[in-house]
């Protein structure tokens, strides 16, 4: 899909506020409500726009521990990778996972209510997984920048 200037305006505005009505969105991007609605639907159909969600403040719900966890698998056989990725899918405290190059195989972002809760997750879930050979934890002291908005 080729994005024109109005499509890009729509994307910027929806990344700022996903709750905008079609009328308010149309006013902000300089298009008619009907045209804006058609464009949003086309962006959704093309896979440019995903689901609409509300972001929750982790601290406000007691998830004060934020950890970057590096994981190395025991081997790179397809069954090992599939086994590890099944763990990812079943654990809600793993918010993000990146397969990476270099010394480690994966980088996870994990949240927990306490360091003790993270330690329990690390020992009883992550290190107990047959696929995992090693893990290292980096505790986030503070967040300087966090965004979900892409520079479109």
Describe this structure in words.
About 40% of the residues lie in helices and about 20% in strands. The chain has about 150 residues and is of the alpha+beta class. It has 2 domains: about 5-45, Orthogonal Bundle (Arc Repressor Mutant, subunit A), CATH 1.10.10.10; about 60-140, 2-Layer Sandwich (Alpha-Beta Plaits). Strands 2-3-1-4 form a 4-stranded antiparallel beta sheet. Strand 2 and strand 3 (about 105-110) form a beta hairpin. Helix 1 (about 5-15) packs across helix 2. The radius of gyration is 20 Å and the shape is elongated. The mean pLDDT is about 95.
Counting DSSP E segments of at least 2 residues, the number of strands comes to 4
Give the helices and strands as they follow along the chain. Answer: HHHEHEEHE
CATH architecture heading of the largest domain: 2-Layer Sandwich
Q: State the secondary-structure class.
A: alpha+beta
What is the helix fraction of residues, given as a range? 25-40%
Instruction: Provide the CATH top-level class of the largest domain.
Output: Alpha Beta
- Total domains: 2
Specify Rg, calculated over alpha carbons: 20 Å
Question: CATH homologous superfamily of the largest domain, by name?
Answer: Lrp/AsnC effector binding domain/regulation of amino acid metabolism (RAM) domain
- Low-confidence runs of at least 5 consecutive residues: none
Which word captures the global form? Answer: elongated
The portion of residues forming beta strands comes to: 15-25%
Let me know the largest β-sheet.
4 strands, antiparallel
The CATH topology of the largest domain: Alpha-Beta Plaits
Q: Average the pLDDT over all residues and give the rounded result.
A: 97
* End-to-end Cα distance: 14 Å
Q: Please, how many helices?
A: 5
* Spatial sequence of strands, sheet with the most strands: 2-3-1-4
